[in-house]
Amino acid sequence: MICMIIVFLVWQAVVRVNGNLDACGITLRNVAPDSIYCTGNGDGVNSRHCFGDSGGPLGAPWGNYWLVAGLVDFSSADCSRLHGYVNIAYHIRWILRIVHNY
């Protein structure tokens, strides 16, 4: 019998959610402002994701649990300022419809 141990190293950072896409101070064509969470404070101190992090979770505490509230979508070109996360709650009907089809 072969026993495999898989270890995942997960980095974590505390980020400040500033609000929706409007809080980032940018406009994306055909993207509803409430479909994106904007995080960070613009000075690089409280902004942690960068290239290769797309799809990573934005966790939020809920009682004794952690929920996935968002997924990494974009960051500033130098990865040190404001970042956007897709708002899972905004897209939940679409997600459930797609999952139901599989």
Biggest sheet, spatial arrangement of strands: 1-2-5-4-3
- Please state the second-level CATH architecture: Beta Barrel
Give the low-pLDDT segments.
none
User: Could you name the CATH homologous superfamily?
Assistant: Trypsin-like serine proteases
Mean pLDDT, all residues: 80
Report the CATH topology name: Thrombin, subunit H
**What's the CATH C level?**
Mainly Beta
Structural class: alpha+beta
What's the overall geometry? globular
Residues in β-strands, percent: 25-35%
**How is the main sheet built?**
5 strands, antiparallel
Radius of gyration: 16 Å
User: What's the N-to-C terminus distance?
Assistant: 33 Å
In helices, the fraction of residues equals: 10-25%
Number of strands: 5
Tally of discrete structural domains: 1
* Total helical elements: 2
Provide the succession of SSEs. EHEEEEH
Summarize the structure in words.
There is one protein chain. The chain has 102 residues and is α+β, with helices and mostly antiparallel strands. The protein has a single domain, classed as Thrombin, subunit H. Helix content is 13%, strand content 29%. It is built from two helices and five strands, in the order E-H-E-E-E-E-H. A five-stranded antiparallel β-sheet has the order 1-2-5-4-3. A hairpin with a 2-residue loop joins strand 3 and strand 4. The radius of gyration is 16 Å and the shape is globular. The termini are far apart. The model has no long low-confidence stretch (mean pLDDT 80).
